[in-house]
Every structure is written in C-alpha cells, then in structure tokens.
Fold this sequence. Notes:
By secondary structure, the protein is an alpha/beta fold. The protein has one domain (about 5-235): NAD(P)-binding Rossmann-like Domain (Rossmann fold), CATH 3.40.50. About 40% of the residues lie in helices and about 15% in strands. The chain is built from seven helices and eight strands; from the N terminus they run E-H-E-H-E-H-E-H-E-H-H-E-H-E-E. It has an eight-stranded mixed sheet with strand order 3-2-1-4-5-6-7-8, with helices on both faces. Helix 1 crosses helix 7 (about 205-215). The longest helix has 28 residues, at about 100-130.
Amino acid sequence: MTTTLITGANKGLGYETVRRLIAAGHTVYVGSRDAARGRRAAEQLGDRARAVQLDITDDASVAAAVKTIEADGGLDVLVNNAGVEARGADNGLVGAADLTADLMREVFEANVFGTVRVTHAFLPLLRRSASPVVVNVSSGLASFAHVADPAHPAAAYPGVAYPASKTAVNMITVQYAKAFPAMRINAVEPGFTKTDLNGNTGIQTVEEGAEIIVRMAQLDPDGPTGGYFDVTGPLPW
Length: 237
C-alpha cells in the first residue's frame, strides 16, 4: 500500500490529486490548514482519504502532522502543493512597482520556506520507504527561459513574488534530488488551471492540471529525478 500526503489538499488541484491517487490505490492524507475543511474534504473523498491538519508555515503544525502519519505507519509520497500568490487590496497581482519586502516574504514563507519545512520534517519517514517520491508543485512562471522570451505567454505575467518563489522551489528540487538519490524528487508545472489561487481565471480544468502531479507521484524507483516537467515533458529552466 502506498501512503501519500498532499498539502493544501482540501480544494482545487490538491483535492483532485487526492481523488485520482485514491483511484490509483493510494491511501492519501488530505493536508489542510483549516482542520474542519480538511475533514469535510476527506469525508467526500472516501475511506482511503485521511484528514490531517497541516499549516505549512507553522513548525508545530507540521511536527504534529509528522507524528500522526508516523503513528499510522509512515509515508511514501509527499506532494508539496500548498502555495500563495501576492495580491493587492483589490485582489490584483502585485507587480514590480508595488512589491514590498513584506509581500515578498509572505509569499516565500509559504511557497519556499513551507516547502522546505514540510520536506525536512518528513524526510525521516520518506527515507524509510522502499520507493519514496517527492513532487513539488512549481509553475511555468518559474522558467527563466519562458519568462525572458517576449514571444512566450509567460513573459506577459506582471507578478514578481510568485515566479521568484517557484524558481526557488525548482532549485530546492534539484539540490534535494542530488542529496537523496534514492528518492524521486521532481518539480511540476500543472498549467494555468482554474483555482482560487488565480481567481478561477485559468484556462484548464483541475482534472487537466492534476495530470502531471498524479503522474509524477506514481514514479517507479528508476523514474526521473531532479527534473522540471509539465504534461508534455521536461521544461527549460
């Protein structure tokens, strides 16, 4: 039996990934900052979904989640899905002219430090698994090649904090993959998916967006590691 934890899993891409992995035979922990929302999501998803309160910005919350999952038997797959974007009072994206250090810090606290916090905390459990996998949900906006190319749609994105944070996630992915060669550790780009993160302005469904996450969460021990992928294959850094 494969046991999986997905952060930010009570809605959107996280919820759909839980649903798909349960269908594939996984037992999945629905990580949710709000315990009640997590419980409701797990109830909707069925017997193989287990709610766990998990705020990726809080050391005590993450430590408690580790104890819960360890007591239940351990962990094989970690999907670092939870994340935030910098938005202004009007809910618009914050561009370079209005970006402050505090806004940047808020985004990095979740997207970068949260990824490290959760990964570090669960490393002991993952290292006990016979086939450990980590999937870091990144973004196409993390690609220097795409954002710097005037002909690519990513070049028109005005935000700073979110792309910078996801570029950091990509580097974290590469370095962790080198440090733990027995694990499959990769970053994925779901695509511009309709979720609360973007005010449901995306052009893909969550079913389409979850495809690459689900695929990389099921890697065999001889699968790729230290890569950056979307549904079509490797992406340029």
